[in-house]
Amino acid sequence: MYQEILYEVDEPVAVVTMNRPASLNAFTALMLAEVRHALAEAERDERVVGIVLTGAGRGFCAGMDMNALNTMSASGGEREAEDLSHLAANPGNPDMGDNFAHIYDHLLGLRKPLIAAVNGAAAGLGMSYALLADLRFVEKTAKFTTAFSARGLVAEHGMSWILPRLLGPAKALDILWTARRIAGEEAVAMGLGDRLCETGESVDDAKEYVRQLAATAAPLSLMIMKQQVYKHIDMPIGPAMDETERLMDESLVRPDFREGVRSFMEKRPPNFDRVKVG
Asked: Which residues lie closer than 8 Å to 255 by C-beta, 6 or more apart?
């Protein structure tokens, strides 16, 4: 059903591949909608424990398509209207509140782990998508650039929120102001990436990571931990601790807790229930 992405499920992993390799997978309005729709599909699929987002060919995503940007600049900034109602997706995760229901930060509200397998250029909005994933598996040949200042733009798409949290204000401003290119090894060393991968191996490495999670961790625990981390990052410690105590009490009476203890005592792999959405 998709025109500009590929979607496949290899249990327990769903892989979403941005598929416009001739343009380094630059975003169109259609591809943005298809990515969001596919992520919602993966969220609802009980076979899926984690999701991998990557790009076809030699790029991850080069940001917005320059033809679309040219049209917007010629029309005074108005965005192209296109009927994408057939790709309407879940508007967000109500457990995360209104802060994680916007067009880009909904990535943080996904109920399942999201790993960006950065296999090449990640620029502008493409870099934002990589940074708003939970983890980044970065190939040595990957290159990051914010690009916004060179286009006369500001720090868009959540970049001003996520970059200081990953790197601190000074490094964030340096990257935003200069729009310099940051190669894979430097990106991992400075904290933009979480795993350094050989060329062509980021997707396989990310899929193996999800398989290990599926074999050892309760999917519901993964979901709740993700919610705790992103919600609590801006909360005072008191309310965060209060919510944690409530969540801990709830977890103690779930079947996952009994299964986790029994599997440990019986020296066998756990058999946890999968997350059910919708």
From this structure: 273
- Cα 112 from chain centroid (whole Å): 10
Q: Are 62 and 26 in contact (CB under 8 A)?
A: yes
Q: For the whole model, what pTM was predicted? A: 0.90
pLDDT for position 69: 53
- List the 59-61 sheet strands across, edge first: 59-61, 121-123, 143-145, 182-183
- From residue 38, how far is each of 41, 119, 132 by CA, in Å? 5, 20, 16
Q: Tell me which residue of 194, 125, 206, 196 sits closest to 166, measured CA to CA.
A: 194
Give the model's pLDDT for residue 75.
47
Q: Give 106's pLDDT tier (boundaries 50, 70, 90).
A: confident
When comparing pLDDT for 83 and 44, which is higher? 44
| pLDDT at site 68 | 62
The residue-averaged pLDDT of 8-28 equals: 97
DSSP string, the chain: --SSEEEEEETTEEEEEE--GGGTT-B-HHHHHHHHHHHHHHHH-TT-SEEEEEESTTEEE-SB-HHHHHHHHHTTTPPPP---GGG------GGG-GGG-STTTHHHH-SS-EEEEE-SEEETHHHHHHHTSSEEEEETT-EEE--TGGGT--S-TTHHHHHHHHH-HHHHHHHHHH---EEHHHHHHHTS-SEEE-TT-HHHHHHHHHHHHHHHS-HHHHHHHHHHHHHHTTS-HHHHHHHHHHHHHHHTTSHHHHHHHHHHHTTS---PPPP---
